[in-house]
Design a protein that fits this description.
The complex is a heterodimer of chains A (about 250) and B (about 350).
Chain A lengths: L4 E10 L2 E11 L4 E5 L6 H8 L7 E6 L2 E2 L8 H4 L1 E3 L12 H8 L1 H4 L3 H6 L3 H19 L15 H14 L4 E5 L7 H16 L4 E5 L3 H7 L2 E6 L2 E6 L1 H6 L1 H8 L3
Parallel strand pairs in A: 3-8, 3-9, 6-7, 7-8
Antiparallel strand pairs in A: 1-2, 1-4, 4-5, 9-10
Helix pairs in contact in A: 3-7
Chain B lengths: L9 H5 L5 H20 L2 H26 L7 H17 L5 H20 L7 H21 L1 H4 L5 E2 L4 E2 L2 E2 L3 H23 L2 H11 L1 H6 L4 H27 L1 E2 L6 H14 L4 H24 L4 H6 L1 H19 L3 H14 L1 H4 L1
Antiparallel strand pairs in B: 1-4, 2-3
Helix pairs in contact in B: 2-8, 3-8, 3-11, 3-12, 3-13, 4-5, 4-6, 4-11, 5-11, 8-11, 9-11, 12-13, 12-15, 12-16, 13-15, 13-16
The chains are: A alpha/beta (about 250), B mainly alpha (about 350).
The complex binds adenosine-5'-triphosphate and magnesium ion.
């Protein structure tokens, strides 16, 4: 099966720090692929390169036949890559619905003049977007929160809104950077269930960075392990868990 | 639990407000504003006109500073560009006022991009200082471009009319300001509930996430500069029409600070807050005068000091406001409303 995303020798140095060194792996369509590794291993930097927020020093990330790592960052949503961030990155003064509608930005169209007059086509476009947003709200079970200001919600719910916002971009690939860190067990289980549904019901591939090993082992189809910027293992959860280099990186390192 | 599933169509969810009471209040307010010139005249009518013009200006400033989070101290410069553009288009090109006012706005919006482009990487205080410097440059250019602007001798605007309303007539000018203010508020409210407004809020709250959600930051920052300054330019044009004689002095630095004060006191980021703030600050000297009259301080001394009192009271008010109510007047209003909506339970 051909890959949805091919990471080909991505590297990044910040001055003297080699954050990521020649990392390669493939993400299959509609699969759950985890990236794990100790703190500072370069996982977030890798995501930032795939989502064009950080320019690679070398290497490429080919998605749909295109090197997305050198695209304009705001084109990623249109190309089919949505993401969440390690630290909360919601639009905290806006409501849940407004946050999700921002995710739909590139699919709505229109211009400032038509928006200001709000007649005909703008109205129709907004209604269509709103219908799509309602589907996501239902999917994530946040019907009771739709008009809440996001900054007022609990951490776990804000993360859920961020997931919804990424879904609203209409992605083929979702990059999730540590969704469940800081969540309680119940919230973590909810997110695990949503990620499985995203794969199975929506046929969206999920590439996720995760420190929570139980969720990684339970739901991943494939796992890539980074340590000090390098890929030290890549395989099924079972293969990776048994890999002596991985065990060493987690136990022996630091 | 109220999930909102009872709302039958998404069209209704999108309506500016589904609350008939809000509609009724808005209707009553506009009706009262239309009827106002029959109730007041002379000085109070002029002050009311000024409130409406300030509303246009602050609603415009709010697009850039409140919604997009780009702090501007350049308000007076943009007002000046709008005022002079409108005056010159009428006096020298004899354009109809109905055309001169929107054109003055578009000219201001376009010129604002000259500051907007180099300001793209600036935030917070750096942007505030840059816009301040730009407004000082504008005032200097106006002073030195004497053949065009009249320089220190000012610019006189002939007594023209706008949609049949004469600018030299107090009532006429009031209605001109009212029409423009209502159109501005409706336009900006529409922006705020559509894609453009959400993009501005997104880039204000988290610019990197906004970028990853598909928002072109450069485009939307410049758009915010353009839309905001166009509206401020229209407010400047209205000032020129109201005064009918403008000099660079009219557009002093104090205007920029006052505009920010209106925004802060009203409640940053909210159109209704901008309106409340504009009304409050413009009416302050009237209130101050009333208070002084109460304590028996009337006559010449009182009115001579009214500007200083206004400045001091404004300053104190901003400090008090930020201390006790960071959400401004609109925050107080929202809380009061919640209190009364839940009345028997809230006591
Ligand atoms: N913008 C930057 N400038 C300089 N160094 C950076 C930058 N971003 C990351 N680094 C460095 O690169 C290395 C990898 O960081 P990165 O955030 O990618 O790690 P991570 O695997 O996501 O870690 P964590 O599990 O703690 O989130 C670290 O040593 C970090 O200090
Ligand atoms: Mg990280």
């Amino acid at each position: 099966m051909s890959a949805l995303l091919s990471v080909e020798g991505l590297s990044k140095s910040f001055g003297g720090v080699h954050a990521v060194r020649g990392v390669s792996f493939d993400v299959a369509p509609a699969s759950i692929h985890s990236v794990i590794g100790p703190n500072g291993a370069g996982k977030t930097t890798l995501f930032n390169m795939i989502s064009a927020l950080v320019k690679p020093s070398s290497g490429r990330a080919v998605f749909d036949g295109r090197d997305v790592s050198r695209a304009r960052p705001h084109h990623l949503a249109r190309l089919g890559i949505g993401r969440t961030f390690q630290n909360l990155a919601v639009f905290s003064h806006a409501t849940v619905v407004e946050n999700l509608l921002v995710g739909m930005h590139h699919r709505i169209g229109g211009n400032v003049l038509s928006d200001g007059v709000f007649f005909g086509s703008t109205r129709a476009r907004e209604i269509r977007a709103r219908e799509e947003v309602e589907r996501i709200i239902e999917f994530l079970e946040i019907e009771h929160l739709r008009n809440e200001v996001v900054g007022m919600l609990s951490y776990g719910l804000q993360k859920r809104v961020e997931l919804g916002r990424a879904l609203a971009t209409g992605p083929k690939l979702l990059l999730l950077d540590e969704m469940v860190s800081g969540m309680n067990t119940e919230e973590t289980e909810d997110i695990a269930r949503f990620i499985l549904d995203i794969k199975q019901e929506l046929s969206i591939a999920v590439l996720m960075i995760e420190h929570d090993m139980s969720i990684v082992m339970d739901i991943s189809d494939r796992v890539t392990v980074l340590s000090f910027g390098e890929r030290i293992a890549d395989g099924t959860p079972g293969e990776v868990a048994a890999d002596p280099r991985v065990i060493d990186a987690y136990l022996g390192g630091a | 639990m109220r999930t909102g599933h009872a709302v039958e169509t998404y069209g209704r969810l999108l309506a500016l407000t589904t609350n008939p009471i809000t509609w009724a209040w808005a209707g009553a307010l506009v009706a009262a504003l239309v009827a106002l010139p029959w109730a007041v005249s002379g000085h109070l009518l002029v002050v009311s006109t000024t409130v409406l013009i300030a509303t246009v200006g602050v609603v415009g400033l709010n697009v850039l500073t409140g919604t997009t989070g780009l702090i501007s101290l350049g308000q007076s410069g943009f007002l000046a560009i709008g005022g002079y553009a409108c005056g010159l288009l009428i006096r020298d090109l004899s354009l109809p006022t109905e055309l001169a006012v929107p054109l003055a706005g578009l000219i201001t919006g376009t010129l604002s991009l000259l500051i907007g482009v180099p300001s793209l990487r600036l935030k917070g205080l750096y942007l505030a200082i840059t816009t301040l410097a730009a407004s000082l440059i504008v005032i200097h250019i106006i002073l030195y471009a004497e053949p065009l602007t009249g320089g220190p001798f000012g610019l006189r605007i002939p007594d023209v009319s706008f949609l049949g309303l004469r600018i030299a007539d107090g009532r006429g000018m009031y209605y001109i300001a009212l029409i423009v203010a209502v159109l501005t508020v409706v336009f900006v409210n529409n922006l705020m509930r559509s894609r453009s407004g959400r993009a501005w809020i997104a880039l204000r709250d988290h610019d990197i996430a906004a970028k990853s959600m598909g928002i072109d930051l450069v485009r939307y920052k410049l758009l915010s500069f353009f839309v905001s300054s166009s509206i401020v330019g229209v407010a400047g044009a209205l000032m020129a029409l109201q005064l009918r004689f403008i000099t660079a002095d009219v557009f002093g630095l104090f205007l920029s600070i006052e505009a920010l004060a209106m925004l802060l006191v009203g409640g940053v980021g909210s159109v209704a807050g901008a309106i409340l703030g504009a009304a409050f600050i413009v009416l302050l000297p009237e209130i101050a005068r009333g208070l002084l009259a109460l304590v028996g301080w009337t006559g010449e001394t009182g009115s001579a000091h009214v500007f200083e009192i206004r400045a001091v009271v404004t300053g104190v008010l901003i400090i008090v406001m930020l201390r006790i109510e960071p959400d401004g007047l609109i925050g107080i209003w929202r809380r009061t409303k919640r209190y009364w909506l839940q009345w028997p339970l809230s006591v």
